[in-house]
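Reader question, answered in our methods column.
A reader sent in the components of a multi-part assembly and asked whether the whole thing could be modeled at once rather than chain by chain. We filled in our standard form and ran it. Here is what they sent:
COMPLEX SIZE: two components
ENTRIES:
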Amino acid sequence: MGRIVGLEGSFAVAEAVRMVNADVIAAYPITPQTHIVERLAEMIADGELDAEFICVESEHSAMSACVGASAAGARVFTCSAGQGLELMHEVLYIPSSMRLPVVAVAANRALSAPLSVWCDHSDAMSLRDIGWIQMFAENNQQAFDLTVCAYRMAEEVLFPAMVHIDGFFISHVIEDMELPAEDEVRDFVPDYEHPFVLDPDKPVSMGCYAPPFIYPETKKAQEVAFEATKSKILATWDEFGRAFGRYYSPVELYRMEDARIALLVMGSFSETAMLAIDEMRDAGEAVGLIRLRLWRPFPFAELRAAVKDIELLVVLDRAISFGMGGPVCSEVRSALYNLADRIPIISFIGGLGGRDISIAEFKYMIKRAQERVKEAGMEGAEMPEMIGIRE
Amino acid sequence: MIEISVYGRGGQGAVTLAELVALAAISEGKHAQSMPSFGPERRGAPVLAFLRVDERERIKIRSVITEPDVLVVLDPGLLEVGDVFSQLKEDGIAVVNTKEPHEVLKSKLNVERLATVDAMDIAKRVLGLPIVNTAMIGALLKATGIVRLESLDHQLEERFGKLAAKNKAAMVEAYNKTVVG
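And here is the structure of the entire assembly that came back:
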């Protein structure tokens, strides 16, 4: 049986890694991910977790160690944030191409310059194409649950999985959550055997040299296999729901029944946005909230189903792609472009570098989006608007 | 839901105060959330921490607190820096660490309800350190009753180990000495 505890988001992640009994942890501390690494190092030192902690000198080495350990059949973990993920970047493509079920947590952080340790999704957006399963948590409970699910998914489909938890807004928040019993978690994430483990008695080659006559075939195989992860992701969440009572899905809806306008968000501001939706619903407005839980593989079908009856979609990005706008919005637009009845999609960028977004600002975005469509129709929807900027 | 903003300086333990009270509230079966502010984390710099406690519902909001029900001020020097009290809700209460007599401070500040204690004196005597957060937990509990004093015992032991007893003594002394009115 689970119990209700007060736990910092970082410690919730560390508990998940302890309960799945990870074998190898290689990580380099960086704000706001530091507490996860510190707690895991403490668990290992105190004998609460029987794992090898590899003290690396950089994030690049952290991921390299995870790749090697995972290839040798170990259950591995790393975590990073912001600049650390950027330094790790080159190596992040390796486990996805080599089909290694590495699990990582990103405590999302803005990118330099100017230097910021605070949250936005710039680091996450730079990782869009690394070929990992990627999902976003909204609170500490989900940080725990999704980390547990990440192991189950990764090991079933042989792809790495990353859980995004917003730096500070989740990593440093203490709140009440249910911590399941360890044996329940172990039942859900059973021991795993990598089918092609590095073994001197049964040699295999991984990450070989691929000239043009074979490289494209490897990428096609990777894409086909990655697209096929979707059914296992759904099955994992379904089984998790039945075991623990909390259900997750690629696109989650809040008060979307009869909604004409929807706001789409991702990450820790989702629940604040819910309160804005509640206030607008109380005022008689037909608005709802769409939360993108699964970022990769991108949930095209679920998103299309979510917007099928609405007239206007408002997307909040917590990152900017310079010269392009909001990255989440551009992906949402491309997912919906081929619909017969296209709706205006208005892009807002906010919450950069840890800037707060209040309930009032969420309401403003929805109001302002309606004005822009009234003023300029589909053309009015083109440019993103940054909110809360002092001019 | 009760919303509490804690003003202090880096090293005084504002974040720890919010965390310990949140954990104590959760141990009483309440819903609680502590959230550090997002300012520079170094000794001496102004630090802000947020604490929310709700007896009925899970706390959804993750924005900063802009209109607190309770304002805890760990460093009396911060009273000079800016008008932190203007954001306090009309029926809110300010809990201030000060050497000034209660009535003197009350006449200076534009607040309806005030709780005062010389937490620095208690911290220096009991802990031998100028760290006022555990004494100010005592003041906060006296002023608001949001959690029971004994609910902090376990949290203090977890956080401070062999220094827990002294911190508990500081908290209890401040609880008893805090003037509310």
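What stands out: The CA atoms of residues 26 and 340 of chain A lie 48 Å apart. Chain A has a mean pLDDT of 96.
Send us your own complexes using the same form.
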